[in-house]
Amino acid sequence: MEISRHARNNMRLYNISERDILNAIDSPDVSGREGDKMVAVKKFQNKFSGFPLKVVYEKIGNELFIITAYPIKKKMWR
User: Fold this and answer.
1) Predicted confidence band of residue 49 (pLDDT cuts 50, 70, 90)
2) Which of 1, 2, 66, 71 has the most other CB atoms within 10 Å of its CB?
3) How many angstroms separate the CA atoms of 61 and 20, rounded?
4) Per the confidence metrics, is the pTM higher than 0.85?
């Protein structure tokens, strides 16, 4: 798994671990596509102030490239 600089900065800012990102990708509550990127959304109990974590990534062969990860703070997620 490769993580972009932007995603690493968000990981530090929001205290997101690599395990959280892998959990969201492996068992998302909601998943889909935004253009050519994959999106996974997962709500964690007692983390991120109750907001779900959104991970945007690409799958290149067998490798994952994490573009960004952040808690969704809007009421837009379903």
Assistant:
1) confident
2) 66
3) 22
4) yes
The residues near 31 (Cβ < 8 Å, ≥ 6 apart) are: 38, 39, 40, 41
């490239």: which residue's tokens?
A: 65
The answer to whether residue 77 scores a pLDDT higher than 60 is no
Q: Is 48 left (phi over 0), alpha (psi -120 to 50) or beta?
A: left
Query: CA 37, CA 51: separation in Å to the nearest integer?
Result: 22
Rounded alpha-carbon distances, angstroms, from residue 26 to 33, 39, 74? 15, 11, 23
Tokens linked to 59? 């799958």
Task: State the DSSP code for 23.
Answer: H
- Cβ-based burial of 60 (10 A; exposed 0-12, middle 13-18, buried ≥19): exposed
Which of 72, 19, 62, 15 shows the shortest CA–CA distance to 41? 72
